Structure formats: structure tokens, C-alpha cells
UniProtKB/TrEMBL annotation:
Protein name stated in the entry: YokU family protein
Highest taxon, organism lineage: Bacteria
NCBIfam families: YgiT_finger, YokU_near_AblA
InterPro entries reported in the protein's UniProt record: CHP03829_YokU (IPR022451), Znf_MqsA-type (IPR022453)
Length: 90
């Protein structure tokens, strides 16, 4: 796997914790075990753009008032959606 930051071929898949502000701005949630990238050469850990989109779409489409924190990525993605897709995305 290639690191998008330093270009190293020593990046690898990892599961990391991240923090997201809810779409309504009421609070932030801790999300554990997010599929991420970890580079042993430059030390950066990040989520790819597609993963960020998945998380943000899910947070837009669920009832976040019932969401506990912390929550695992898999549990977050398993929360039933109120809408089928994010109609607010351009």
C-alpha cells in the first residue's frame, strides 16, 4: 500500500480511533476501529477520502440523538438509516 503523504510503499491497513462532529453541531463522537492507513516511514495515520465520505454520509442519515460515544465503526455503519442516500451531497 502506498502512503498518500510521503509516497512510501510501506503504508499498511490499520484500525484507528477518530472523532467526528455530528452534522447538527451538537457534539462530537468518538469512533473506534475505523479502517485507516498507517505509514511506518513518515508516521502518519489517516483515513482515506472514501472512508471519510462513508462515515459522514452515515452520520447524515441516522438518528444521531441515539448514538452512543464511543462507538465502533462497524456498529456505526450498522445503525439503520432514516433515508436511503444523502440527498444533501452535491
Amino acid at each position: 500500500m502506498k502512503c498518500h503523504w510521503c509516497g512510501s510503499d510501506h503504508a499498511q491497513e490499520a484500525r484507528r480511533t477518530g472523532y467526528w462532529e455530528l452534522p447538527d453541531g451538537s457534539r462530537a463522537v468518538e469512533i473506534k476501529e475505523i479502517p485507516s492507513v498507517s505509514c511506518r516511514d513518515c508516521g502518519i495515520e489517516y483515513q482515506e477520502d472514501t472512508m471519510i465520505e462513508k462515515i459522514e454520509d452515515q452520520l447524515m442519515l441516522i438518528d444521531t440523538k441515539k448514538l452512543s460515544s464511543p462507538v465502533t465503526y462497524d456498529d456505526l455503519m450498522a445503525v439503520p438509516r432514516l433515508l436511503k442516500k444523502n440527498y444533501f451531497k452535491l
